[in-house]
Amino acid sequence: MRTNEPPVTGTAPQLAAPSRALPLSVLAGAAATFTVVTAELLPVGLLTSLAAGLGVSPGTAGLAVTLPGLVAALAAPLLPVAARTADRRTVLVGLLALLAAANVASALAPHLAVLLAARVLVGVAIGGVWAIVAGIAVRLVPGPAVGRATAFVFSGIAVASVVGVPAGTFLGELAGWRWAFGIAALLAAAVGLLLALALPPLPAERGTALRAVLGSARLPGVRAGLLVVLFLVAGHFAAYTYVRPVLERVDGLGAGLISGLLLAYGAAGIAGNFVGGALAPRDPRRTLLVISAVLAAGVLALLTAGGSLLLSAVLLLVWGLAYGGVSVSSQNWMAAAAPEAREPVSGLYVGVFNIAIALGALLGGRAADGFGADGALWLGGGLAAAALLVAAGSKRRTG
């Protein structure tokens, strides 16, 4: 990645501040990623009450989780094309306003069709915010601080992944699922205001045409990076979706301890995000090589942990630490592979990432149905190993 790239002309004067002090604009970017991912995950902790309130089965209510991810996969590469020359600050503020409105509509939904229509809008907001924010750090801070700023922006995703489901569950139990969506709407509105106040003007670097998005996908470094993301993320979700049944086989590991371990896993993921953010700017390929190897080995080693509580706990924490670095490291790969096309490549990256989430959970389910929870782990470890092979076979330098 070009860590000596100067800030884009037109950014605010405070961006020349020492790299040790990240500006408020970076915090606003992290708040945006936290908000959209929390909105995406919110129904997970509300499924039971949501299904009862709308008179549908929990499986049908689960569409409120699946649908936004699929829409985000389409919106991420297409929204920069639709926005064309619009100032990216204005676009981000508009997307947070859309997210707030969608959450209000979700809170007031009289039946499932209205809720799902609102969740489609949530998916548009998720894809659009990710596509713009993923590569925004280089425009907000001087070169030496870009890696740390990128890690901080992506920490919003990691933190939301840890607290999103518990927060939704707590709010749903405290005040009901409608109020949970209402509070999410207030959060989105507040973050939209923060973005408006904290971000400098961010004029489009160039109008993004659809051919630019498709052309970026043909770059060898971009193709290799997208394959690594596809295999790693799909492998993770194929295995992690079914990790609880694996842990339930461990002697002495009750429900309370399993929940504590999963929380510790999330905390390890937050730490891994910052470790990846520190290492990836120097050599994103090598960082992802290590992550792929650790993920493949850690997931497959759980198959042999047997009834060992200590070994299972250690492997789960190693897994969390490694996966926590995937988002920020792969974004650094994308930026290094196509430094002159950050926004189109970020859109592709976010699209593939969301497709990989859905694909991993789907394939993991088929493997678990056919071969039990161990089958999901074998699949997840195998896909992580495939990511390792792709990264090892790519050029040493991605940009």
Automatic annotation (TrEMBL):
Transmembrane helix is among the record's keywords: yes
Compartments in which it is found: Cell membrane
Domain Major facilitator superfamily (MFS) profile intervals: 24-399
Biological source species: Streptomyces luteolus
Membrane topology designation: Multi-pass membrane protein
Keyword S-adenosyl-L-methionine: no
Segments crossing the lipid bilayer: 21-39, 59-79, 91-110, 116-138, 150-171, 177-199, 220-243, 255-275, 287-303, 309-326, 347-364, 376-394
InterPro entries: MFS, MFS_dom, MFS_Efflux_Transporters, MFS_trans_sf
Keywords in alphabetical order: Cell membrane, Membrane, Transmembrane, Transmembrane helix
Top-level taxon of the source organism: Bacteria
SUPFAM superfamilies: MFS general substrate transporter
Principal subcellular localisation of the protein: membrane
Entry protein name: MFS transporter
